[in-house]
Amino acid sequence: MRRRRFLGRVGVAGAVGTAGCGFRGDADGSRGDGPGADPSRRFRVADEGFEVAVDDGGFEPIAVRGVNLGMAKPGRFPGEAAITRAEYDRWLRLMGELNVNVVRVYTVHPPAFYRALAAYNRSHADPIYVLHGNWIGEETLREAGDATALSAAFDRSVRQVVDAVHGATTVEPEPGYASGTYDADVSDAVLGYVVGIEWPPAVVAETDRVNEATGYDGKFLAAPDGSPFEAWLAGRLDAAVAYEASEYGAQRPAAFTNWVTTDPLEHPYEPFVNEDAVSVDPDAVVATDAYDAGTFAAYHVYPYYPPLLNETPEYVDYVDHRGEPNSYAGYLNDLVDATDHPLLVAEFGVPASRGIAQRDVHGRDQGGHTETEQGEIIAAMYADIREAGTAGGVVFSWHDEWFKRTWNLAPFSDPNRRPFWSNVQTPEQRFGLLAFDPADAVPLDGSPEAWADATAATAEREPVRLGDGADAARELTAVRVTSDAAYLNVRLELAGLDGEPDWDATNYLLAIGTTDAGARALPYGVDAAAPADFIVRLGGPDTSRVTVHPRYDAFAYEYGAEAGLDLDRYRNPIPGDFTPLRLVINRGYTVPVTDEYVPFESVETGELRYGNGNPESPAYDSLADVHVAPSSDAIELRLPWGLLNVADPSRRRRLGDLWTDGLDTHETMESIDVAAASYAPDGADGTARPLDAETNLTHAAPGAADGALESLEFVPPTWDRPAYTERLKESADAVAEVFERYARGEE
């Protein structure tokens, strides 16, 4: 049901809203001073989006420039509600500096959030508004099947939200939820409510199946011709608005969360049935004459999923306001055209992660971006959102979330320990504008002082000298190893680097052992053995990679059959065989309409990128794995724990024998064996040249004897709470700029 076509029967949402209650202030009830002290604000939704009136003034439009704020931080699950007042104060200040005018929260936060918001808005002329939600777990929905069974619990949770923002409740402790005394009234900063989550299609379908389609006719919201699920949502919103009106004499806009999967559009090119099986139409829910504040549509829209965004020709070929092909803009314009309510993009963004999980046809992938690229893409997406005629957009997310998992990597880590370490391979953990860096991380910029406390070994024997001018670069004076909550770090110290190494003359090899499997023959034609589960070859910016012993290849074990691999090679590998490290990004599908088959796809995630990893450096590259430092005669590299099959570095736990015990068995690493060597390559493939010596390695640290590399034994530390530092990513600058640009355009 379209809103504008239904106005004659139900009434117009958009008249003067009801005033809120004003700020009570901090816990002591003080009202405070400052340019933003104690205004009375009213909110409503008009045809083009949100509007706000201050005191007795008229309504003015406000376009949303927002960020989503979750409840997790490193070392804590979101349900622990562990964010402190100092953190909220600091983050709100930073948001304001980035020209953010709305923060969206998904559930009731600790009282500190509301106190911090009240304090911020008392002291700033330009307030930060709130879009507030209530949380209902996906598993809870799936277990219920029929959403109507959860009506009472859902309504209670929304009432709790309303009481919390009015500073008028005490919430008793309950596992998984925030609690405490809510005494800061921030209702005059609450722009609206966005309830619920991304609705699972199976729940929508089951609710529609078991309930009669009678619609809903409420005091404030109605769904006269809505499906049972849409009617249920209308009832929940109606109950929320009614509660706030009766208890606090206030109204504000309210909507429910939606996403591409349950949008009301037809998507004939979508290959997965569940991604276009059911619709939840925001236009089916309309405001009555009694609801002055009005309702709107709120969608989570990302550029890379579902596949329909990559496969629908009208989207792929859509030309945006820049004159460029842009499937994201194509979808947004289609959605806005089909929606009568003002439309808010309540989540959008891309992660600055090393790993990748989904491709976008125009390069806005789920992962694989530097922080600079992340900012450029988010800024472009916000421009797309505004140019499509929406009510604004809310970036996902404010900060990185270590507890998150990503579909293609979830089986390889311990779900109970994810918040305790930073898995840079996992895109879902890296959407934030605010980064959490391990406090003891090496900067990866060649600085020797960062390695002072590292475990070290010097070379025990003289190198083989070839007299070709590269002997100093091949001579290893020491190898140093350290670790942090994100990486295993290794530094090779050399007799002399005259600028960038001559990679045609010198390559380096690291043998890394985590499983106590004993000595194994090495690849690249090296006639030596080492206790190696992983091999790192450093052969220059285009030919450096990490490879894995086939039997320990988690990708092959989990996805090998789908990828068409010869699994016998992995169960019973031949000596010296090591295979690429890969990430699956698409398991294959057939596109309806065209019957085109899009095959299984993976990327080689073991490839190593050269650059400077220090955020303070003008040359900073957030995806750098390797740094060459001629000034300190060193080469440094950092290897993500997830790349090394470590399921929980905080407890020093790794994946076990995959082909015997599967992925669910985790074993303790007592130590990690690290051996370093140099050699002269014979061709671009990195094969070692033959030498008239015991091995064809030119040098090794700690050493080599009897045809085997000797290893440094490194014992990684363990921890209960990770030590970390906060840092705004480079992406924040681009977001601040685009927000400022569109804010100026509003004036």
UniProtKB/TrEMBL annotation:
UniProt name for this protein: Family 2 glycosyl transferase
UniProt organism field: Halorubrum ruber
SUPFAM superfamilies named in the record: (Trans)glycosidases
Cited InterPro entries: GH
Gene3D superfamilies: Glycosidases
PROSITE patterns referenced in this protein's UniProt entry, alphabetically: PROKAR_LIPOPROTEIN (PS51257)
